[in-house]
Design brief:
Blueprint lengths: L4 E2 L18 E6 L2 E13 L1 H4 L21 E12 L2 E5 L7 E2 L8 E5 L7 H4 L4 E4 L4 H8 L13 E4 L9 E3 L4 E3 L2 E5 L8 E6 L4 E4 L23 H15 L4 E4 L8 E5 L2 E4 L5
Parallel strand pairs: 5-8, 8-9, 9-10, 14-15
Antiparallel strand pairs: 1-2, 2-3, 3-4, 3-7, 4-5, 6-7, 11-12, 12-13, 13-14, 15-16, 16-17
């Protein structure tokens, strides 16, 4: 398993460490599958309101996760999965959007997208786009028609059953095999049709989490759920299931909202980022 980074996305004034800054391009290889995180931007999360707490609560015990303005940094981007004879894109970012904090929800700060187009050449030709759920920060470029991304707009777009998605998108259900070795894991709660992906790399596996998790603070504090969860009980069950899967030896997690630590493992109830390297 390897990881590396290159090329930053302009972000808020943050402390100069990975836990509290927007993500950059990073790559990991598990068995015969290479996964690259490609950044589009970021969303700032106001901790107490995001987790529906009367005060910052457990987040106050993790100041390393907060940017200079006191927000959790939720990176926004996509995953490019490359296996034997196939290439998949997971999610579609926020798209060419920049919404100031004054115009967003009370639980949010600024929402900034647009950076993914700088990586269009690396995305190239893909077999399909799998969307974990149909929230704005995961379907932005798709809804915009993928301008500047070649033929990506013409490949199948797949989303979980129950999602409000554009007409013509294919439907995924629990256990479906998207391509050889990539299976759908239904993880409802944040949205009704939210899906994750289990990727069998032969000598290890990768779990694409989606929005089952939004911040590393939820790993030691799994009771924290997003104020946007449509079914908090289902969301809590999905978190418990995913965290249990991530704790299985040989499993690497891919969590695109985890600031600049999108790839890691769960050890002793903590998120452990993969080391940098070539």
């Amino acid at each position: 398993m390897t990881g590396r980074d290159a090329g930053a996305v302009a972000g808020p004034a943050t402390r100069a460490h990975r836990w509290a800054r927007p993500g950059v391009r990073r790559r990991t290889t598990v068995g015969d599958v290479t996964t690259t995180y490609l950044p589009d931007g970021y969303v700032q999360l106001e901790p107490a309101r995001w987790f529906s707490l009367p005060d910052p609560g457990p987040v106050a015990d993790h100041p390393e996760l907060l940017d200079a303005q006191g927000y959790l940094v939720a990176s926004v981007g996509v995953l490019l999965l490359e296996g034997p004879g196939w290439r998949l894109l997971v999610d579609a970012g926020l798209g060419p959007a920049h919404v100031p904090a004054s115009a967003t929800h009370a639980s949010l700060g600024a929402m900034v997208g647009g950076g993914l187009v700088d990586h269009a050449g690396q995305i190239g030709a893909v077999d399909a786009v799998v969307v974990t759920h149909a929230h704005d920060d995961h379907v932005g470029w798709a809804r915009a028609g993928w301008p500047g991304f070649g033929g990506v707009a013409r490949v199948p777009h797949l989303v979980g059953a129950g999602e409000r998605a554009p007409s013509g998108w294919g439907v995924l259900r629990d256990g479906d095999e998207v391509v050889p070795g990539v299976r759908v894991l239904a993880t409802p709660g944040h949205t009704y049709g939210h899906v994750s992906l289990v990727v069998d790399g032969g000598s290890g596996r990768l779990l694409v989490v989606g929005d089952v998790l939004h911040s590393p603070v939820q790993v030691p504090h799994p009771g924290l759920g997003s104020c946007f969860d449509v079914d908090p009980g289902e969301s809590a069950r999905s978190r418990a299931r995913v965290l249990a899967e991530l704790a299985v030896p040989g499993t690497v997690g891919a969590v695109t909202h985890f600031a600049d630590v999108p790839f890691g493992t769960v050890r002793a109830g903590r998120w452990v980022p993969l080391p940098d390297g070539d």
